[in-house]
Structures are given as structure tokens and as C-alpha cells.
Amino acid sequence: MDLFESNYTKTEQEMSHLPLAVRMRPQNLDEIVGQRHLLSPGGILHIMATENSSNSDKATALAPSIILWGPPGVGKTTLAYLIAKNSRRRFREISAVSAGIKEVREEIADAKRALVEKGVETILFIDEIHRFSKTQQDALLPSVENRTVVLIGATTENPYFSVISPLLSRSIMLTLQKLEDDDLLELVSRAIKDKRGLRSGVVISETVKKQLVQMASSDARRALTLLEVAASSAFTTSTAKRPTITAKILEESANVALLRYDKDGDNHYDTASAFIKSMRGSDVDAALHYLARMIVAGEDPRFIARRIMIAASEEIAMADPSALWTAVAASSAVERIGMPESQLILAQAVVHVCLSPKSNAVTLAIGAAIADVKAGHTDQIPQALRDAHYSGASKLGAGIDYKYAHDKPHHIARQQYLPDDLQTIDNGEPRKYYNPTNNGREETYAQQLKKIRELLKI
């Protein structure tokens, strides 16, 4: 279908089988909760999303490309739907989680045909546009520039860091704010009464409604999902014509409603934690399992790549320095390639990290050094090590008696490097932060370090 295709076109019977959060998607601006700073009369969103014919003409003339930035569940997709519904354009939606350049180019080609053959413009809505790589975003530029498509991109991440500058400069960036408790209360109350929702078929006290809102954490989708599961549970456990959603039912329902990977909730952190601990424990199969969970759930591949880089240093470091090289290369490749192909690169890096010998000696070393600094072990830097390049430095004693390492045997100069308060802190010996293990290549570094420390003794 060339015209707008969405849940707005479904019959009431068809809608009844959809999730509550979908059924309750606002049909007009009056049903949107929050975001009043963007929806004042005369504003660009108000013009583009208003149904009357005079404003529709104005919307057709003025519609720019837009980047909608805001936390999950605040209405980014809804606004895109309303704009598309009322601006008399074709509407196409793709998700940056699963789509690649091929899908983008296909949509742009279809938009060109619609424009040439029918004179109809296309709104291309890209959800989670920040997940597109630079190359994928670059592919959008010509069609946005020449208005082959009107782009509406939705993102939960700061566009100044996640969207390329040329695309930002060709779009209007609008920031959506998190929903307040009163906004969610209004939404939940409407869903209980509305014919698209629960049709007043359940009873729920204001106290329990407020508890539900707190559980939703400013996310409208989460609030409606929790309400739907709780209502279903109430009907199952009660014979009353209008069962009551109690606090107990709500708490029990929360485990069901949120039994999914939520990239902004506890499951996000639990999955990431299990992923990291599996790599640390060298269980490659478990690590690949949690990697797969994150990929399927649409986790940002850049987040995954960052965790692998951190693990390569935190869990391995000098036991196999090449693990960090692999992790950094994987991160760079993810930026250039994007999903879904990047899943192969991430998996390769995970396997390398899992199979490498492990050592946390570097982690312990920098932790101990920072602890000393925070504890106040910050005596004056030895005079010989101070900067001697500025005029008058020698008069202050800076750089005097400095011994140049490359002039000495083994290229190691025996002199004081640590400040005085750390020079005899370990049983009369200088502080030793790095204590390498005998795992992997670190065993070689341990032997080398022993010799160096002997040479450095004053």
C-alpha cells in the first residue's frame, strides 16, 4: 500500500488482538501526554501533526527532516506516526537495529518511484537511528538533501555524539523530555476507561495506580504493558465481573511484564554483568550466549564493543596484549560496518577474550596507585624529574642531576622516580603497584620486571 500503513488503519476487531500499548497509541495531539514544550499551537510539530485541511496544506509545504531525541517510552514513535498520518505522505518505517544499507537503499528507491510516478512524498521513519554506523548514515544524506524522503529519526542517545554532523545540519533536532508521574497517571487512567483499552473492566485504586507508575520509571510503554499483564492476572484469579488489580497482583505481574531484555532496566545490567563475568571466567559458550541475547534485544553494538575492550584490559592486560588489539579493531569495525554484520566481529573479539590467559594485575596496580593518591601520598616530584625546558628552571633546581636512560647500560637509569613518601613505604622499599602473574605472556614480563627493579635499586 502506497499510503500510510499502520495500526491507525486497523479495524476495532483487529486492534483487539494487539498489545495495550499499541492500542492506546494516541490518535491526535490531544491524547499525547507530556512534551507540551514541543506541541504549542504554531510550532512545527503542531503544524505537521494537526488534521484539519488548512494545516495539512501547510504541513505539506513546510515538513523538514527531524531528529527526535529522548528517553524510551516518551512518544517519539507516536509523534512520527501522527506526522505521517496527517501530512498526506507515504509512511515507511525501518529499525536501525535490524536494517542495513540494503534496506535503506530499497526504501529510498521506492520513495523516488513514488515521487516521480505519483507525485507523493515519503516520510522515512528510522527508529534508533543512533545504531546506524557512519557509513549507513552517510547513505541517507543525498535523499535527505534533495528531499527524496522526509527523514524522521528517533534516538535515545545524544545526537551530537551518535548522529553524523552532515545529517544533523540537514535536520531539525527536537528534544523530548521524560514523562512525569502525573503524565503516566493520566495515561493509565485513560487506558483503563477507553474503549481501545480495558473499557472500565477492572478496578484499581489510586494508590495502586501510583505504585504502577513508580514501577514504570517514566516509560509509557512499560506502564501500559504492566497494566495489561496485571489486568489479565486479575481476570484469571477472580470471578468478579470487574476484578480488582491489587498491590499483590501488580507486584507479581511485574515479573511477567518485565521478563524481557530491557536495555534501560535491570535486565540490561544483569545481562551485561553476566556477559562480562562469563568472559572473565573464560566460558566462551556462556559469553556467546549473552552476546546473542544483547544482539537479538537490539543492544547498541558500540556498547557491547566497549565492554569487550574494557574486559580485554581489565581481565587480561599483559597476559595477552593482543586481546586489546582485537577488541579495539572490533570496535572500529563496528563503527564502520554497523549491524547485522558486526555480530560476527563482536563474536570474534569475545572468543579471543575468553580464550586468552587471564590476569587482573594491571587492574590491581592502577587501583592501588589511585588509592595512594586519594590517601594523600602526593609528595613533591623529585627535582631531577621536573620540567627543565622553561627559562629559570635551572635556578629552581628543576632537571638537575637527571640521568638520561638511553645513555646507561640496558637503557635503564638508576635514580629516584617515586616521590619521597612512596620511596620507602613497602617495608623500607619503594611502592610496588604492578605485581604480574605467571599467566600467558605476563610470565615473561614478570621476569623482565624483576630484572628492571634490581637495576633501579639505588
Strands, helices and their partners?
Elements (H helix, E strand, L loop, with lengths): L11 H4 L4 H4 L20 H5 L4 H10 L3 E4 L6 H11 L3 E6 L5 H18 L3 E6 L6 H5 L2 H5 L3 E7 L3 H4 L2 H5 L2 E4 L5 H13 L12 H11 L3 H18 L9 H11 L8 H15 L3 H14 L3 H16 L5 H16 L4 H14 L5 H14 L67 H15 L2
Parallel strand pairs: 1-4, 1-5, 2-3, 3-4
Helix pairs in contact: 11-12, 11-13, 12-13, 13-14, 15-16, 15-17, 16-19, 17-18, 17-19, 18-19
Question: How large, in whole angstroms, is the Cα Rg?
Answer: 30 Å
H/E topology pattern: HHHHEHEHEHHEHHEHHHHHHHHHHH
- The total count of strands amounts to 5
Tally of separate helices? 21
Task: Give a written overview of the molecule.
- This protein is mainly α and 458 residues long.
- The chain folds into 4 domains: 169 residues, Rossmann fold (3-Layer(aba) Sandwich); 77 residues, Helicase, Ruva Protein, domain 3, CATH 1.10.8; 90 residues, Zinc Finger, Delta Prime, domain 3, CATH 1.20.272; 92 residues, DNA polymerase III clamp loader subunits, C-terminal domain (post-AAA+ oligomerization domain-like, Orthogonal Bundle).
- It contains 21 helices and 5 strands.
- It has a 5-stranded parallel sheet.
- β2, α6 and β3 form a beta-alpha-beta unit.
- The longest helix is centred in the N-terminal third of the chain and has 18 residues.
Please sum up the structure shown.
The chain is mainly alpha-helical and 458 residues long.
